[in-house]
Every structure is written in C-alpha cells, then in structure tokens.
Amino acid sequence: MKFKVQREVLLTPLQLISGVVEKRNTMPVLANVLMETTDTGLRITGTNMEVELVANVDQVSVEQPGRITVPARKLTDICRTMAEGVTLECDVREGRLHVQAGHSSFTLSTLPADSFPNVEDEPESVRVNLPQNVLKRLIDRTGYAMAQQDVRYYLNGMLFEFGGNRLSTVATDGHRLALARESVAETLPERQSIVPRKGVLEMARLLSDSDGTCALVLGDHHIRLEVDGYVFTSKLIDGKFPDYNRVIPRNGDKVVKVDRREFKQVLTRTSILCHESIRGVRLFLEDGLMKVYANNPEQEEAEDRVEVEYQGEPLQIGFNVGYLIDAISALEDETITLTLSNPNSSALLEGEQAGQDDVLYVVMPMRL
Predict the structure, then answer these.
(1) Which residues, in sequence order, are CB contacts of 12 under 8 Å at separation 6+?
(2) pLDDT on residue 152
(3) What CATH number is attached to the domain comprising 65?
(4) Considering the entire predicted model, what is its pTM?
C-alpha cells in the first residue's frame, strides 16, 4: 500500500475516528484503524465492537492499493504535530507503515487487515433523509438526560421513535425526562429503537448546524448515520424503553410563566450555597413571585427571587437545581412555562406555547 495525502485532509477524519477507538481494550487490533486504498481513494475505519465509524477520503493520490491496520492515536498525533500544508507520503513495507513528511519520518507497527472486526451488514427497515441541524437539535435537546452506567441498561441511551411524519427522541435517567419532536418530509413506519449513549455522543460530533442532508438508517440491531462522507454505525440496546407518556404530568393546575434567562440566573446564583451532594433548592411560589432558597451543612444560606406570571395558591416544592438548569438551558423560548400540581408531583417545563409537545422536560421533586 502506498499513497500521498495532505496533512489536513487526513487529520480531520482521524480525529473523529479516534473518538470511536477505545483507549483500553482486550483486542490489540481495536486500538488500530483500518486503512484501505483503492483507485477511488482512501477508506479509514475505526470500531470498538459497539460502534463503527468509516471515513471516505477522496483527496488522496494512491500509487499502490492495499489494506492494513495502524495505531490510531499515534498516527493522529503524528498528523496533529506536523506543519499545515505538509504532504504525508505513506508506504507499507515489510509489515510496517513508513510515513515521510518533509524532514520528518516515522515507522509504525501494523496488524493484518484480516484481523480487523467489521460491524455486520443487515437489511434496512427505516430510512429517513433530513437536515443535519434538525437531527442535531433533537439530540442536543434531550441528550443531557441520558443515564450513565445505570443498572437499568435500557436507560443508558436515547430512544429514537419513528412514526408518521415525526421523529422523536426521548431520554431519562429516572429522575428527569427530556422529549423532543421534529417533523420530517417522509411518512415513517412505527418503530422504537434505543441507541446507546456512546453512539448518541458520536452521532452528535458528526452533525453540524447546517441544513445539509444526512440519512438515518435503521435495521433490526443497528442504526446508521450517513453524513458528509462518513458512515457511522452503532449497535442498538436490546431492551424495552419505559412508557414515557405515563410519567408526563398532564393535570397540573399551577401554571407559571417566567423569563428563561432570569430564572436560570437566579438558580445559578442560589446553587452556589447548595449542599454539594444533594444539590437541592426550594421554590416558594406566590402571586406574581417565585422565591428560591438554598442552604448547606455549613449553615450558609442563599435567597433570591424572580417575578413570574402566576395567580393561585402558594406552593413550596424542592428540586435538584442542576436538573432544572439543564432543562431551562435546553429550551430556546424567551419565556418558559412551568406547570406544577403539588409538592410531591413532577414539574413540567415547556416553551412559552405550552401543550405543543415539540419540546418538554419533566423533573421529579425532592424532599428537602
């Protein structure tokens, strides 16, 4: 195998693929990337057996086709430290990859390409083409609520729900829930799939805020994202996601409208004196006003207030302040709607036009 490529052309896909390759693994070949050259260009693949990312590079001069695996992070670091505009000449000889760049030369160990695992191909059951920024927005609005290393393994990911002319994403860690929906141009069959946390985070890295098209392809055991010359594949979590509609509180009679930025600032200031592990704040609601209190074991206290649109009975309720701030940060409206029922019921946070179900967040209360 022998080819020439400009440093910037090779660095970008290597950096993205290095995020997929695990630092610690039981198979040495998983620390490598598979490099394949053909008459049409260079193909680079990285995997950790759960997710796989393939980059197709066409701005490359191939002198001799071939296949080999090389250490991912070492090759990435070599490219990163080279000067801009440098051309890398790569040549595989006697089981080693020789890289020549200006006055610098490197010799890297390799492993046979045949030992590199591939994610199995399977028939696609759903394919949807949509703008990158739409899919990115769905992930960004709900991703923070995914569980991490929860024993309920089906919560350690994000639910992708297809159906009709809508694509929805849902995430929950058992204490809070995030739901976002977007319309799509195609009519989709009814399907639910749980994408693991690692897969969701890698998909978000590949997507941009542009309106360029990407393709989301669903199989029985995998989901695939095709975008800008990259093909990302992730295994699905084999489990049943909870019925999220049952935990969305719909009967709250205390509706509060509040300026999103002011509310976030008040919570951020008050949280400075929260209990470090519990992170609890108390909200006191009365006509036209919400007071926010926090204290900690050192007998320190914080009190702040924010004007709200509310008329009704006074209410006192406690929340994890981090959960509230995460939900408020994910909303985009200038004014947000907070719907409550009683001190033991979950809060529903939505945009100013509550009830549209495009984006909503549920936060469970705390006893303080």
Answers:
(1) none
(2) 95
(3) 3.10.150.10
(4) 0.92
Element (H, E) at 266: helix 260-270
DSSP 3-state of 211: coil
In a domain, 206, yes or no: yes
Q: Verify that 208 and 253 share a domain, yes or no.
A: no
Same domain, 236 and 133: yes
When divided into structural domains, the chain yields a total of 3
At 43-71, the pLDDT tens digits run: 999 999 999 999 999 999 999 999 999 99
Contacts 24+ apart (CB under 8 A), 250-254: 250/348, 251/341, 252/339, 252/340, 252/341, 252/345, 252/347, 252/348, 253/312, 253/341, 254/285, 254/310, 254/312, 254/313, 254/315, 254/339, 254/340, 254/341
DSSP state of 148: S
If asked whether residues 135 and 232 sit together in one domain, one would say yes
The residue segments making up the domain with residue 350 are 248-363
What stretch of H or E contains 234? strand 230-235
C-beta of residue 49 within 8 angstroms of C-beta of residue 96? no
Query: Quick check: is 75 in a domain?
Result: yes
